[in-house]
Amino acid sequence: MKTQLLKKLTLFIAMAVSFSISAQENFDFTALDCSSNKYTASKATLTCDASGFILANPGTDPFFELRINGVKTDGQNRVVINYTNSSNADGIFFKASGTALQDATVKDLGATSVEYSFDDLNFTDPDGGGGATGGTIQLRSRFVNKAGDPITGNVVITSLVIDDQGTLSLENVFAKSNTIVSVKDKKIVVKNAPEGSLLKIFNLLGQPVENNRLSTGAYIVRLSVKNAVLTKKIMVF
User: Fold this and answer.
1) Of the residues 73, 109, 215, 221, which has the maximum number of CB atoms within 10 A of its CB?
2) What is the pLDDT of residue 121?
3) Where does a domain end: 165, 198, 222?
4) What b/e readout covers 205-229, taking b as 16+ CB neighbours within 10 angstroms?
5) What is the largest CA-CA distance in the chain?
6) Tens-place pLDDT, residues 79-97
7) pLDDT for the residue numbered 46
């Protein structure tokens, strides 16, 4: 009896874990190696440090993009990308090779994140099975200058999540807690962050800095808890 119950419990846990993996895929670029062949860049150089994946353009093309190979799919219909934009890129769109997801509608870049939903267009890979069995695709995140001007500067991508509309996005975890990030006495102050949140602060070169008597200038603030990541660009005066 105990053995049968244990087997059923083990099967239930395995099914739950399998569902979690297929329903959502997270990329925390602050902890990943951009030199892996899983990641490539087009029209840009790709480097990485503790602040995330850094796309830099030499100023010759009106776009650059991050390509992620072998992304798991199971009919998801939303991408949430978090970043800090220090370039003249002002739009973004996503493409997924070999799938129904070929929507080239350019969406305005937000201050630090974009949520991109596809309605009936979703991740379905005919070669990999798609749908219930899932598949793999190459996901392309393309940053553009809508006027067609060559892009100068860089974009630091901190995280990306692929999920369904009903799943909480990365930033919603902090929005639900009403997390507030501010500056007081040249120090970053965080209120109402979820329990266990980790705070990191970087200058615009991606170098970590101590949260104590910060010099005047711009900083990237990164809050993380479990798979949720929140990034904000903060000015200290």
Assistant:
1) 73
2) 45
3) 165
4) ebeebeeeebeeeebbbbbbbeebb
5) 70
6) 788 899 999 999 998 877 7
7) 96
